[in-house]
Amino acid sequence: MDDLEPLPVVLLHGLIGSLDDPAIAAALHPRLVFSPSLLGYGANADTAPATITLANQVEYVGQLVRTKFGDGRFHLVGNSVEGVVAALFANKQPEMVASLITAEGNFTLRDPFWSASIARMDQAEAEAMLDTLRIDPEGWLAQSGISPTEERVSAARRRLNLQPASTLRAMGRSIVETTGQPSYDALLRSVFVRMPVHLIAGERSRDGWDVPAWLKSWP
Fold first, then answer.
1. Residue 4 lies in a domain
2. Cα separation, 65 vs 85, whole angstroms
3. What are the residue boundaries of the AB hydrolase-1 domain, all occurrences included (predicted)?
4. What is the secondary structure of 104-158 as a DSSP string?
5. Is there a domain that residue 182 lies in?
């Protein structure tokens, strides 16, 4: 993938963060892996919800990667809803992105169905939903067909506690607003002609991924 020294990999987590996992870093060794917590997550969990938008996430990612890598290039991976942030960043800063990898990233308004449902909730409903998941991480994994091993349950519990419900609501609203605009499809097309793009889907979830028809026949 790289001509000389392996370029770093930047991982953007999904609606529930994060991807800062030693196992992931080990799998990508010897590449340097950077898995930041975005606005509203982890150390940034107290970010004001009104400021949590995809546009602000893109700006924040730019600040982080410049601090980490200067003007160097890297491979950018966006998981699920953060696939939107990754695409927006790649469109804005194409000179920094060696390739874009979208792991079931949202392409159309049909993809962020969970985000859309959270966006419609009031604060009390969102908090109750998140509390339910935190109480039963095994059930949350089982809903996705994931065997709830001790290691996976521990990781799920940690990730469910990385963000407040207000972050999920803010992200949900911004994701729906962005992917629902006709200009988003045009933006994706623009990104795809400017850099290598790779799509990754899970074995059980591939059929539910709403990949646009034009992309299915992409060269």
1. no
2. 14
3. 8-118
4. S---STTS-HHHHHHHTS-HHHHHHHHHHHHH-HHHHHHHTT----HHHHHHHHH
5. yes
Do residues 74 and 9 touch, judged by C-beta distance below 8 A?
A: yes
Long-range CB contact pairs, 186-190, < 8 A, 24+? 187/87, 187/88, 187/91, 188/87, 188/107, 188/212, 188/215, 189/214, 190/91
User: Is 2 part of a structural domain of the chain?
Assistant: no
Evaluate whether 62 touches 70 at the Cβ level (below 8 Å): no
Tens-digit pLDDT profile for residues 115-157 = 888 989 999 999 999 999 999 999 989 987 889 899 999 999 9
User: Which residue type does 86 have?
Assistant: A
pLDDT of residue 112 exceeding 70: no
Structural contact between residues 46 and 38, judged by C-beta atoms closer than 8 angstroms: no
**Rounded to two decimals, what is the model's pTM?**
0.89
Q: Report helix, strand or coil for 103.
A: strand
Closest CA to 35 of 103, 111, 130: 103
Section 47-71 average pLDDT = 96
| 136, part of any domain | yes
Domain that holds residue 120: 9-216
Tokens standing for residue 76: 């950018």
pLDDT higher than 80, residue 192: yes
Distance between CA atoms of residues 188 and 109, nearest Å: 13
Count structural domains, the chain.
1
CATH number of residue 23's parent domain: 3.40.50.1820
